[in-house]
From TrEMBL:
GO molecular function terms noted in the UniProt entry: carboxy-lyase activity; hydrolase activity
Name the record gives this protein: Amidohydrolase
Amidohydrolase-related domain ranges (all copies): 7-308
Superkingdom classification of source: Bacteria
Keywords: Hydrolase, Lyase
Pfam families from the UniProt entry: Amidohydro_2
InterPro entries membership: ACMSD, Amidohydro-rel, Metal_Hydrolase
Annotated source species: Fructobacillus ficulneus
Amino acid sequence: MNDMKKIDGHLHLLQTIAGFNGKGRLNALGQGKAIWDDGTKIKLIPDGWGDHDLTAESFLKVMDANSIDKAVLLQGSLNGYQNYYSYQVVQAYPDRFIGAFAVDPFAQNFMDIVRHHVEDLGFRAIKFEISEGGGIHGYHQGQAFRLDTDSRIGEIFHYLADYPGFTVTVDYGAADQVSHQPEAIKVLAGRYPDLNFVVCHLSFPDADHWEALANTFNQWQPYQNIYTDLSAIQDILGEQSLPFTKSQQAVQMAKDTLGTKRLIWGTDSPWSATFNSYQSLATWLDETGIFTPTELADVYYNNAEKVYFNDKAVRAAKAAANQ
């Protein structure tokens, strides 16, 4: 299946390492390593991809070596928001990348930020990295909020409702975090049927609690505008060698309930590619037998093309040139 078209539906590029979460700021050390303000060190970028950054030019080499046609640029607190760099990358390589922007709703001018990225820079996707472990709930202690009831988030959704087909991507962390809100996605999908909702990381599967994951998928099943990506589930399930048996079980559960038209393959690189090789992440689904070739084409390419690279998103990105 090496000739199958693929879109990496969950990628982070880093013009500058600028992470921030409950551990403070993330500072580059070189050789792909970084250190949080509390002293925690991580290997963020695989060897050979970049010492202090991961640029589009560097990752295009990885994409070409692994026959990846396109990629979706998402934002998160682990790497630091790379909003404007994502805009620049999309403008430079419109046939290879599309992007989502992020905003901290606690910022005083959060709606000005939203409007600027949608109206001036042409984004047609927003990423809410709200997890307690690595997102907004980790650095706004005592200010827990829900996506379906918070007035600030509601103001953003009210604005986005004027853009049918807009995509809302959410990372809400694991089930033991206050940020974990699968029920909110169901509510929002019903409230905004013309928006697309993509939940990252298959809603954080836990091999000790498969029934909880099944309950989440059952809640989402009636809402055709809810999608989920398969990125980083190996990390989450603690798997660092093929054939990723637990990950296969989680994906099979998702397919059985949601079908194959609502699953989006992705890697969550660069960090996830430090635990498993990018080649393994790019090919692990091929021999599982979970999907037929036609279904795999949807998961690898067609679903991300529909959700992220649709005509409205591409036109808006092109219209935002020279900002």
